[in-house]
Write a structure and sequence with these properties.
alpha+beta, disordered N terminus, 10 helices, Barwin-like endoglucanases, disordered C terminus, 384 residues
Length: 384
């Protein structure tokens, strides 16, 4: 047991008594409570094949790592060497034995924060927009790539005693200052490549919230647009903005209703949209799905966006929550993405899939309570 803890956690306070079933992490208020697979709702019925397919995508990234942990920015530390061995081993496992492999090589731990395992779970999707390579009267709204004058720094690059904090900005008069806000970007052209021209600003805005989109081009082709970077400003949800300004009622706060209001009131929509100072820049990608923060294409129903301050990207999670129509969602997922609004030890954004407003209705309705277990390797079962 002590060997397991030594490999999995850095700077943790461990309750190492073998009879003790709770692992207390040094991070304030974060707790991992050891569980069994019998505690996982629907574990025996879930066909985990698609989750393992998603996990193998994560393994491709983890196999490239030389760092000690699969995600050093997370409070929960998982040893890279250990994970690589599991990634290699699962390639030789037949689908009918996937579940047995997981049970023999991973232990589930209920994630708790401030004594509670309950958290909030929402959903997102890959949006859709209509675009062209050329600007015209119809296609006149730019989809920006990464600006040439945007600079990213980390304070620890200058002084290891400073916080591990990422800053985004630009240089003006030899000073590093915050990058342009959404309102400033809307006012004047950026020093940035224009990837495509879209036919309306609302679809671009929704794409930025979701992080990616499929562009249906004027010539009939389709191009996938992925996340590249943001301007470093805080994110504020358009729903809360419209509610504060009394432009919509509480019952209209779903993403589908919000998008409908924005499109029906495009002359009035710019001002509230600009109150969300965050602006997302994109890149064109060639993949079978949107690319998440881990650098792998996301899998519908099996990828989860998490707060990587707590949950390492690439970790297996057992999710227990409900969907937009109150249906049970009890399944194996993989932490493969992050989000501006996804903050907290027990917080997730469930990737619903790709599509138009039909998928948006599903994704936008999901505001559920739930919990998850993190599956940590049984290091003692792996030959060093």
């Amino acid at each position: 047991m002590k060997k397991l803890f030594k490999i999995l956690f850095l700077c943790c306070l461990i309750v190492s008594c073998k009879e003790q079933k709770t692992v207390q992490h040094v991070a304030k208020d974060l707790e991992l409570k050891e569980a069994s697979y019998q505690d996982l709702k629907n574990w025996q019925k879930d066909d985990i094949s698609s989750a393992i397919k998603a996990f193998k995508k994560s393994c491709l990234q983890i196999n490239k790592k030389n760092s000690e942990y699969i995600d050093s920015s997370s409070e929960i530390k998982i040893n890279t060497k250990t994970y690589k061995k599991l990634c290699q081993a699962i390639e030789h496992i037949s689908p009918q034995n996937y579940k047995k492999f997981i049970e023999e090589n991973f232990s589930p731990y209920l994630v708790k924060y401030q004594g509670s395992s309950e958290g909030k779970f929402t959903s997102y999707y890959e949006a859709k927009l209509f675009a062209s390579y050329k600007k015209s009267d119809k296609y006149k709204y730019p989809v920006y790539g990464l600006p040439f004058d945007l600079i990213e720094i980390n304070l620890q690059d200058f002084d290891k005693t400073l916080p591990n904090k990422r800053l985004v900005g630009r240089i003006k008069n030899q000073k590093f200052i915050p990058y342009y806000t959404r309102a400033e970007i809307h006012e004047k052209p950026l020093n940035a490549p224009i990837l495509l021209w879209a036919d309306n600003e609302v679809d671009i805005y929704v794409m930025q919230i979701q992080g990616s989109a499929v562009a249906h081009m004027e010539d009939g082709s389709e191009i996938r647009i992925g996340y590249a970077e943001n301007n470093g400003h805080p994110f504020k949800g358009i729903g809360s903005i419209l509610l504060e300004e009394k432009k919509i009622n509480a019952g209209q706060a779903s993403m589908a209703k919000i998008k409908q209001w924005l499109k029906e009131n495009q002359d009035k929509a710019i001002e509230p949209m600009n109150k969300n100072k965050r602006y997302v820049f994109h890149r064109l990608i060639n993949a079978d799905g949107p690319i998440g923060a881990q650098g792998v294409s996301l899998t519908a129903g099996r990828s989860l966006a998490v707060d990587r301050k707590y949950i390492p990207l690439g970790a297996l999670l057992w999710l227990e929550t409900t969907g937009p129509d109150k249906e049970n969602i009890n399944k194996l997922v993989v932490a493969q993405d992050v989000g501006g609004a996804i903050k907290g030890a027990v917080r997730g954004d469930y990737f619903w899939g790709s599509g138009g407003d039909d998928i948006l209705v599903k994704a936008g309705k999901m505001h559920s309570k739930g919990q998850y277990y993190i599956l940590l390797p049984k290091a003692e079962n792996i030959n060093d």
